[in-house]
Amino acid sequence: MTPTGNNPALAVDRLRSARRLLLTCHRNPDGDAIGSELALAELASAFGIETVIVNRDPAPINLAKLPGVEAVVVAESLPPDFPEGFDLVVTVECPELDRAGFDGLDRVPILNIDHHMANPAYGEVNYLDEKAPAVGEMVWSMFKTAGVEPSPAAAVNTYVALTTDTGDFRYSNARPRAFRAAAEMVERGADPPTISEWVHDGRSEASVRLLGEALKTLRFLCNGRLASLAVDEAAFARADADSTDTDEIINIPRAVADVEAVIFCKQWEPGVVKVSLRSRGRVDVCVVAAAFGGGGHTNAAGCALATDLETARARLEAALSDVLGGR
After folding, report:
1. CB burial string 149-173: b at 16+ within 10 A, e below
2. What is the three-state SS of 67-94?
3. What pLDDT, on the 0 to 100 scale, is given for residue 326?
4. Which position has the higher pLDDT, 279 or 201?
5. Is the sign of the CA dihedral 41, 63, 300, 22 positive or negative?
6. Residues of the chain above pLDDT 90, percent
């Protein structure tokens, strides 16, 4: 039987038994993914375990100041000594194994740590907690379970994970559990004003140009309750931007008073459209994302469609319009 549950002891016990591990996360990593990886690497080091962090895509520029982020390797393939040189793979915030963007990860036993509802428990051990506000908060619980005092760096990295996945504690997952963890992280060295400046005021020039491109496409449907915007390959080229420059754009239309859901379609490579979905309250965008092969959370989800940009946008607009009760 595959050990699966929301008890951090499951993950701690499996982690302790490793000698050399590979850490990875989903493609186009966000604050929760990167922050969780860096904190986990510290915990593994406390156990005397050598850790290699390899991600398929780079982190956004606003996460460049996270302590230890320079150790993250960005590569199109796994290390040359994989799988022989590793005895454990740890995936964080990766609801399906293929979301990591690497083939063959399952040639080594996997510890799967995630808070997405639809995670199929693909690991040898699965620490899954859909009620967790962020994987970073789950990693924080692992430190406490293991009896390891987190460093100020771990406090910073897990706080980044927590604050980004809760939208600065504005999303529905910002429940008492999130605030208790945040208080502990601040007590151990996380500085909220500094972290907020990194996350929100560290944008690249390209991301601002790309925002301008996206806003040109903005339209409202369902009597203003649904917002939709898109950027194609030409827009990325004009802005001299890449996939790391798309963060935060979706939050601009989400801030409009009557908007309950937002669709953001992005195409930076031929034949594939990446879609981000955000919502407020009880509007469940995860159900919509799942219908297109994706997933996520009630108020934040995503998917990918193998089609052209306008077709993808139209299909998502129709699906969200149905959820919201018509155009």
Report:
1. ebbebbbbbbbbbbbbbbbeeebbb
2. CCHHHCEECCCCCCCCCCCCCEEEEECC
3. 62
4. 279
5. negative
6. 83
Q: What is the CA radius of gyration of the chain?
A: 19
Q: Reply yes or no on whether the pLDDT at 247 is more than 90.
A: no
Backbone φ, ψ for residue 202 (5° rounding) = -110, 30
Q: What is the pLDDT, as a whole number, of residue 189? A: 97
Cβ-based neighbour number of residue 251 at 10 Å: 14
Q: What is the model's pLDDT at position 1?
A: 59
Is the CB of residue 135 less than 8 Å from the CB of residue 113?
yes
Contact 192, 199 (CB under 8 A): no
| Domains of the chain with bracketed CATH | 4-200 (3.90.1640.10), 205-324 (3.10.310.30)
Tokens of 192: 């909220």
Query: Residues with Cβ < 8 Å from 79, sequence gap 6 or more?
Result: 22, 52, 54, 73, 85
Distance, in Å, from the CA atom of 66 to the CA atom of 73, rounded to the nearest integer, reads 14
pLDDT tens string 114-170: 999 889 999 999 999 999 999 999 999 999 999 999 999 999 999 999 999 998 998
CA distance 266 to 302: 11
How long, in residues, is the chain? 327
Q: How many CB atoms within 10 Å of residue 13?
A: 15
Contact yes or no for 101/56 (Cβ under 8 A):
yes
CA-CA distance, 105 to 88, in Å (whole number)?
10
For 26-78, the pLDDT digits (tens) are: 998 999 999 999 999 999 999 999 999 999 999 888 899 999 999 999 999 99
Contacts of residue 222, defined as CB under 8 A and 6 or more positions apart, other chains included, come to 320, 321, 324, 325, 326, 327
